[in-house]
Amino acid sequence: MQQLILTRPDDWHLHLRDGTMMQSVLPDTARRFARAIVMPNLRPPVTGTEQALAYRARILAALPAGSKFEPLMTLYLTGNTTPQEIQRASQSGAIHAVKLYPAGATTNSDAGVTDIRKAYAALEEMQRCGMPLLVHGEVTDPAVDVFDREAVFIERVMIPLLRDLPQLRVVFEHITTRDAVQFVLSAPAHIAATITAHHLLYNRNAMFAGGLRPHHYCLPVLKREAHREALGRAAISGNPKFFLGSDSAPHEQRLKESACGCAGIYTAHAAIELYAEAFEQLNALDKLEGFASFHGADYYRLPRNTGKITLRKESWQVPVSQPFGEHRLVPLRAGENVGWKIVD
Ligand code: DOR
Ligand code: ZN
């Protein structure tokens, strides 16, 4: 196949940051996707409806002229989130989900949830009004091996949570293991998952290829090959529980290339192209449109997009870095090639 025409996709998990950094990265997403679920882990985090609406207005103001891109906002769950705040968010029409960061699990998660039971009043209201909970599914217990944190989270947090709140709609974000795939498959229809392009394309060897590779470091961390293969099978299965969430997470170059480099892989510059590569490797390009353009919209109870995008099978070289506010960021595949190209 030399050309691929898809219903315009949506990105159901995206970090846009704020200010001039957001202005630099937003066009990459707006060129490819009609909508994106925008993560709330700013500093300070987006914990209230008013903050989320103000953030949304800043994103809309930063869009390239003529862009119809729609940011779908989220709230950052804390132990103090009230049921009233959930109601306000739900009634706003602009806030589509609430994000659970276990405190300390990842970038800007310090204000996250220390004990999920502290958030139960808010979660009960979410269950009542159908607001999805987006879960960063990793335990933070330092005694747990970093490669096991997702699997242990399923046992310690996810299973009890779904037992206590059986109707709560949950998206297990950026799943990285066979365990998570199995869990989602065996859970009821209102439990779904996003899968990133980088977890489909790389296993954990990519972090250590010839030396330490900070631009392949994200959380949840890349896993071993058998897990990558399980994610691929889920993504191409046609099962509507699985959909696209890039987790594109830009950081300044110097903050990644450091003695304590931060977690996050920037993929927005080639997001749908990288997914096309992953699906092509699996001989399943015919399954990309459902995964990228239909399943997420259906899960979020939003209309499917009507516009189209065209991808051409053509290799192009990714720049070694790109502007990020006053700084630079290093995108995935920097200086290397991507095998598909978006054509306007
Ligand atoms: O790698 C990651 N980067 N994982 C996350 O969960 C957060 C994200 C970020 O915000 O940089
Ligand atoms: Zn994320």
- Report the sheet-strand fraction: 15-25%
CATH fold description: TIM Barrel
* Separation, N- and C-terminal Cα atoms: 19 Å
Q: If you compute it from the alpha carbons, what radius of gyration comes out, rounded to the nearest whole angstrom?
A: 19 Å
How do the SSEs run, as a string of H and E? EEHEHEHEHEHEHEHHEHHHEEEE
Contiguous uncertain segments of 5+ residues? none
Largest beta-sheet details:
8 strands, parallel
What can you see in these coordinates?
The structure is a single chain. The chain has a single domain (10-304), classed as Metal-dependent hydrolases (TIM Barrel, Alpha-Beta Barrel). It is an alpha/beta fold. It has helices spanning 19-32, 49-62, 83-92, 120-129, 149-164, 178-186, 197-201, 225-235, 253-256, 271-281, 288-299; strands spanning 3-7, 11-14, 35-38, 70-76, 95-100, 133-135, 170-172, 191-195, 242-244, 308-317, 322-324, 327-329, 337-343. Helix 3 packs parallel to helix 4. The longest helix is centred in the middle third of the chain and has 16 residues, at 149-164. A hairpin with a 2-residue loop joins strand 11 and strand 12 (327-329). The protein has 11 helices and 13 strands. The mean pLDDT is 97. Bound molecules: (4S)-2,6-dioxohexahydropyrimidine-4-carboxylic acid and zinc ion. Residues 13, 15, 39, 247, 249 line the site of zinc ion.
